[in-house]
C-alpha cells in the first residue's frame, strides 16, 4: 500500500478525532472510507469516446449513418 500524507486544519483534526472515537476506525481507514464515499456521490463514470468522432462543423454527429444527411452527396 502507498503512504499518503495530508495537512489538516484544527477543525478537521477535531472531526477526525471524533470519528475515531465513534467508529473505532483509525485515521487511514477513515480517509479510505471518506475517499470511497466522495467518489461514489460526486464523480460520474467517464464516457469513453474515440477522439474526433462526431466532431463536424455542421454539428451533425450522425453524418455517415443518417441517409437524410447524404441525399444529393456526390452529385454535381
Structural class: mainly alpha
Order of helices and strands: HHH
Strand content: under 5%
H/I helix tally: 3
Number of distinct beta strands = 0
| Low-pLDDT windows of residues | none
Rounded Rg:
26 Å
Range of helix content: 40-55%
Number of domains: 1
Overall, the morphology is rod-shaped
Report the end-to-end length measured between terminal Cα atoms: 66 Å
Largest sheet: none
> What's the mean pLDDT score?
84
Write the layout of secondary structure elements.
Layout lengths: L9 H14 L3 H16 L24 H4 L6
Can you put this structure into words, describing what you see?
The chain has 76 residues and is mostly helical. It has one domain (10-70). It contains three helices and no strands. The relative contact order is 0.06.
Provide tags for this entry.
single chain, 76 residues, mainly alpha, 45% helix, rod-shaped
What's this entry about, in short?
The chain has 76 residues and is mostly helical. The chain is built from three helices and no strands.
Amino acid at each position: 500500500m502507498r503512504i499518503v500524507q495530508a495537512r489538516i486544519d484544527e477543525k478537521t483534526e477535531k472531526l477526525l478525532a471524533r470519528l475515531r472515537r465513534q467508529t473505532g476506525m483509525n485515521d487511514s481507514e477513515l480517509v479510505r472510507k471518506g475517499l470511497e464515499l466522495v467518489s461514489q456521490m460526486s464523480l460520474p463514470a467517464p464516457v469513453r469516446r474515440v477522439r474526433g468522432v462526431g466532431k463536424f462543423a455542421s454539428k451533425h454527429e450522425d453524418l455517415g449513418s443518417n441517409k437524410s444527411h447524404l441525399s444529393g452527396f456526390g452529385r454535381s
